Amino acid sequence: MNPDRLIVTASPHIKASDTTPRIMWHVVVSLVPVIVSSAWFFGVSALLVIAAATLGAVITERLIGRPGALRDGSATITGLLLGLSLPSGFPMWMAFLGGAFGIGFGKTVWGGLGQNAFNPALVGRAFLQAAFPVAITTWPKPGASFWTLGGDLFAWPFLRPVSDAVTAATPLGLLKFEKQGTPLTDLILGTTGGSVGETAALVIIAGGIYLALMGCLNWRAPAAIVLTVGVFSGVMHALDATKPDALFMIFSGGLMLGAVYMATDMVTVPVTNLGRWVFGIGVGLLVVIIRVWGGLPEGVMYAILLMNALTPFINSATQPRVFGAPSRTPS
Amino acid sequence: MGEEGGEIQLMASFFGFAHGIHPPEEKDLTRALPIRRMPYPDELVLPLRQHAGKEAKLCVKVGDHVERGDPIGLADGFMSVPIHASAAGTVTAVNWWPHPDGSMALSVHLAVDRYAPQVPRPRLVPRWEGLTVDQVVKAVQEAGVVGLGGAAFPTHVKLVPPKGSTVRTLIINGAECEPYLTSDHRTMVEYPERVHFGCRIMMHTLGVSKAVIGVERNKPDAIAALERTRAPGLDVTILPLTVKYPQGAEKMLIKAVTGVEVPSGKLPVSVGVVVQNVGSLAAIAEVFDTGMPLIERIVTVTGHGLMRPTNLIVPVGTRLRDLLAHCGGVTKDAAEVILGGPMMGMAQANLDAPVIKGTTGVVVLAARETRGESVYPCIHCGRCLEACPVFLNPSLLGDLARVHRYPDMADHQLADCMLCGACSYVCPSNIPLSQLFQAGKAALRRIPPPVKA
Q: Does residue A192 register a pLDDT over 90?
């Protein structure tokens, strides 16, 4: 051996085999069943929406992101999650724009992976919600034939879409505006109106369990969200029976997708375990407040974005006590 | 006594330190191999700085002939120990030579006598029972005994607790939590009487009535050997510990054994505990058994990049090149040579550096085991927080180090970091956290602390 060719690095000299790209691609893999179920319920148009959002995210990352940043898979996750949170039949150019905005304004301008304060997929969706409020609340009915191209998929950019889709209100919309409930089995199985990837709670939970087993998901924030929403809305329901009950709140809307995939985005949620509980409880409270008293039927997106803003404060308030230190160290 | 042991065991299972990591042990390479003696190489290189504290004062000159065990450097004050010739030979040079820590150190080169019997000069073996504390301390210092767990802190200093402090418990570190290393393991299996004998002398000198030997559960044969040779009339508990890194770190071990946290910035003696490594005890035993100073040590030479992994008694001063050659040389894909374990050891740039008193092992890593070069941004996954045994926030500290905010790092308790490397090990982004913290600590030593108004 030529001694001049020895590797000399600081300790430690060995490393666990997990890498950041591997974590990200695990998340992508766990999303595959969710994508498949979205195609099952909403047909090929769901796939088209997801593909458009993902392309928007990936192309933007390639154009203005750091060189080689695509390989870590995080832009793909952003695009997929954005696509999954859109209605089927959503104009593809809008979905593409949302993906591009999410990556551009939600991530790249902050400095790329690991630097952004807000979940990029939700930044993209918030932009779409603000820019295209009608399109993003037009929910085609699930269960049409697979090849039916829903709504305004191919609408030209900036032209007035001519919507002739048969729309179906979401369970939350039905409840809020028409005081009408939805059977729990429909909610759990996903046979309701809604965004393409949000309806099938069971599939999303399965994806979360897979990620947790792979060590890529910290269960505390999702658990805190579900528990808080359950307890808070359960109490509300007990006090006032016109308010929705706990199971309806947990399994409707984007709660499951948000809890499992967006409140576990490592970059934008607190880094301490206690902080993750705090974050989840905050999201849960905000979701119930927005849904029950707010003007919008759904509040998961804003709840998570608002709590994202608090993440640095939660982090510094929940530092664990250092070994051998007298008490919690102020930060 | 038996009940007492049971109680401590119970406490350990309650209080074992939290966090930590589980790197692959890789101890099977050498776990079952008996310790063999390495033949003397042609040349020995003895740095005068082999221990924490002041380096030894040179006491030989070029051309001098020394017998095995003769001093070549003398202790320079109390916080220093002498260095002895590990073999009979002639001093051929005194020069600056690569030191295993990466620096250069003044070193004595010894051409080993090929045909010398290597029998040490006749010496008086002190009988420890009749000695006062000061005499024991002096004998241990003159034998050049240092902590053999890696830090090489002069052992005799630990025999004299600072004024005003009382020592109640002696804890003996047989955890050996570093992957690959089995030198302490084999010491306990093959020389358990020496460990117990060293323990007895240590307890006598410190005036403590209770000792606990902590051994990780992955060494059942070591635990059995220590149980079998347990000295009668001595309150020594052999405590099996959870297998987890860094179980052998002093403060973690104390927490696991006693349930007490050593306060931040304080020494173990502040909670009435002194910790010694099993190897150091065996070395003390040697001093009061044969009178031999510390001139050789048990080294695990191992790794997937080495042809014949072995546990060896190696003369201090053997150059790595000779040592690796004795073990069949390295494989084609050998990439990194580490003195110590792979978690806290020093990677070597120059194989002319010698084995010194603190060298617990030599690990040759194959290319596939090394860390690789791609580093990703921190995604705040929090794995480092769950690994850190002292509950720091390595993620935050790493961010601060990257922008050179060293005083802020100090505010976030950088001083409590012991550079165990658990955070760097788990980091999926391959961020060299431990290295950043090392740099931060070094920078903070240069910057005077800000004046608080």
A: no
Give how far Cα B5 sits from Cα of A152, B166, B208, B236, B240, Å.
76, 22, 16, 8, 11
B246 contacts B150 by C-beta, under 8 angstroms = no
State the Cα–Cα distance between residues A303 and A268, nearest whole angstrom: 13
Tokens of B324: 């690796």
Written as six digits, the tokens of B62 are 């070029």
CA-wise closest residue to B59 among B98, B91, B27, B87: B91
pLDDT tens-digit map of A58-78: 999 999 988 888 888 999 999
Is A323–B390 a contact, with Cβ atoms under 8 angstroms apart? yes
**Which among A64, A62, A38 has a CA at the least distance from the CA of A51?**
A38
**DSSP β-bridge partners for residue B413:** none
C-alpha–C-alpha distance, residues B220 and A77, integer Å: 47
A9, A16, A113 member nearest B426 (Cβ): A16
Of B420, B442, B432, nearest to B378 by C-alpha is B432
A34-47 CB burial, b ≥16 within 10 A, e <16 = bbebbbbbbbbbbb
Tell me if B376 and A329 make a contact (CB, 8 A cut-off): no
The helix or strand, by DSSP H or E, that contains position B96, with its residue range, turns out to be: strand B89-98
| CA dist., res. A269 & res. B380, Å (int) | 8
Q: Across the interface, do B381 and A266 touch by the CB < 8 Å criterion? A: yes
**pLDDT at residue B18, rounded to an integer:** 82
Give the DSSP letter string of B251-287.
HHHHHHHHSPPPPTT--GGGGTEEEEEHHHHHHHHHH
Query: What does the block give as tokens for B31?
Result: 């776990």
Q: Name the residue among A322, A326, A331 with its Cβ closest to that of B390.
A: A322
Dihedral of the alpha carbons of A272, A275, A280, A286, in degrees to the nearest 10? -150
Cα-Cα-Cα-Cα dihedral sign, residues A152, A154, A157, A161: negative
Phi and psi, residue A40, nearest 5°: -60, -45
- Interface contact B425-A319, CB threshold 8 A: no
| Residue pointed to by tokens 């993209």 | A124
Tell me the pLDDT tens digit for each residue of A204-257: 999 999 999 998 999 999 999 999 999 999 999 999 888 888 888 898 888 999
Pair type for strands B71-74 and B83-84:
antiparallel
Q: B432 near B375, Cβ under 8 Å? A: yes
pLDDT in tens, A20-45: 999 999 999 999 999 999 988 888 88
Peptide bond into A12 cis (omega under 30): yes
A107-140 pLDDT per residue, tens: 999 999 999 999 999 999 999 999 988 888 887 7
Of the candidates B178, B268, B277, B258, which has an alpha carbon nearest to the alpha carbon of residue B13?
B258
Please say if the pLDDT value at position A199 is more than 90: no
Task: For chain A, give the mean pLDDT.
Answer: 87
Q: Which residues of chain B are within 8 Å of residue A12 when distances are taken between CB atoms?
A: 342-344, 371, 421, 424-425, 434
What is the residue-wise DSSP string for A8-38?
--PSP----S--HHHHHHHHHHHHHHHHHHH
Say whether pLDDT at A93 is over 70. Answer: yes
Structural contact between residues B374 and B430, judged by C-beta atoms closer than 8 angstroms: yes
Q: Tell me what ipTM this predicted complex has.
A: 0.88
Cβ contact, residue pair A9, B371, below 8 Å: yes
> What is the average pLDDT across A74-85?
95
Evaluate whether A240 touches A256 at the Cβ level (below 8 Å): no
List of chain B residues with pLDDT < 70:
1-15, 449-453
What is the residue type of B363? V
Distance from CA of A330 to the nearest CA of B (A): 9
Name the closest residue on chain A to residue B435, using Cα atoms.
Answer: A10
3-state SS class at B339: strand
